[in-house]
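can u do me a favor
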């Protein structure tokens, strides 16, 4: 071995010893000999016993945002979109953009466009590998379309998707259409969430008949053991009042009319939609706000005859209340 080689070896050994000594120094506190810990929040190395700051200004490898609770941390963490039951693959698949552009927005060449078209085709085939996934893809698309048309919130869509998945897993679909079970799932989810829609409203956005929706709905809730309470007429009042542009006073008066009707037992055997529409109409008249039976009928999707009949019953129940 030459002299230069031996010199370089001695230099390397001395550097290694210095690094080991430096590491050993970082393990123990120079003040009290306690253990050193890394404070990622402040970028400091401190003693766990006496609190001495040994090093500061270290590189913070954590996120640049702050979170004050677990839910906020989950919302801000960048680990991809959360899984959801509203997609047949729960959102875990890869989507290839339909635009033939690269990351800089430049158009792709002809060969690259052909390649991307082939990739899209095979990606779509792999996403729906069997009949169950194709079934889910069609049904969940229908649920999302109907929920959007009805103005239902995301939690209702999620619940409807779970109900449909359960019906598919328990083999309830043979003999019934995909659209029918999907519509029944939306109807049941809306009633469970306290934002019910009438059967006529559901039928307007569905691709199946009203009788099939009702029959499939009864079958699904019976077989799955779903607990769906009867629709409360008061749950329809805010939506009807908002669509008619009525004030908060009129909405509150309509709720009072319905509560009085419940106390008198007038609501038994009556359509909750009809009762709510009549209460809104009566409340508008009692608070001197202009509206017509035709306008209420259009908003509630119920006949004017039903509104008139329920209207008189609500006012009679109001008059029959005992004086305080």
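np, heres the sequence
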């Amino acid at each position: 071995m030459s002299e230069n080689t031996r010199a370089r070896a001695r230099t390397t050994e001395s550097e290694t010893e210095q690094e080991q000594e430096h590491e050993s120094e970082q393990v123990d506190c120079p003040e009290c000999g306690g253990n050193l810990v890394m404070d990622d929040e402040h970028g400091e190395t401190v003693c766990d016993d006496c609190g001495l700051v040994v090093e500061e200004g270290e590189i913070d490898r954590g996120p640049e945002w702050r979170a004050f609770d677990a839910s906020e941390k989950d919302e801000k963490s960048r680990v991809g979109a959360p899984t959801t039951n509203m997609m047949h693959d729960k959102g875990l698949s890869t989507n290839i953009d339909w635009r033939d552009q690269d990351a800089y927005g430049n158009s792709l060449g002809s060969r690259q466009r052909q390649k991307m078209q082939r990739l899209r085709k095979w990606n779509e085939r792999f996403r729906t590998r069997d009949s169950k996934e194709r079934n889910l893809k069609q049904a969940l698309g229908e649920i999302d379309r109907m929920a959007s048309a009805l103005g239902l919130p995301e939690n209702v869509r999620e619940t409807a998707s779970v109900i449909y998945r359960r019906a598919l897993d328990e083999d309830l679909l043979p003999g019934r259409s995909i659209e029918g079970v999907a519509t029944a799932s939306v109807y049941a989810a809306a009633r469970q969430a306290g934002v019910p829609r009438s059967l006529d409203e559901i039928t307007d956005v569905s691709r199946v008949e009203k009788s099939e929706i009702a029959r499939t709905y009864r079958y699904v809730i019976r077989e799955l053991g779903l607990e769906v309470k009867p629709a409360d007429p008061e749950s329809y009042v805010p939506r009807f009042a908002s669509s008619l542009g009525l004030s908060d006073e009129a909405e509150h008066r309509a709720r009072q009319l319905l509560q009085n009707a419940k106390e008198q037992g007038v609501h038994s055997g009556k359509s909750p939609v009809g009762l709510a529409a009549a209460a809104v109409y009566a409340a508008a008249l009692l608070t001197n706000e202009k509206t017509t039976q035709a306008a209420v009928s259009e908003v509630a999707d119920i006949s004017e005859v039903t509104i008139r009949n329920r209207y008189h019953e609500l006012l009679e129940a109001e008059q029959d209340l005992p004086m305080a």
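The two ends are 113 Å apart (CA to CA). hope that helps!!
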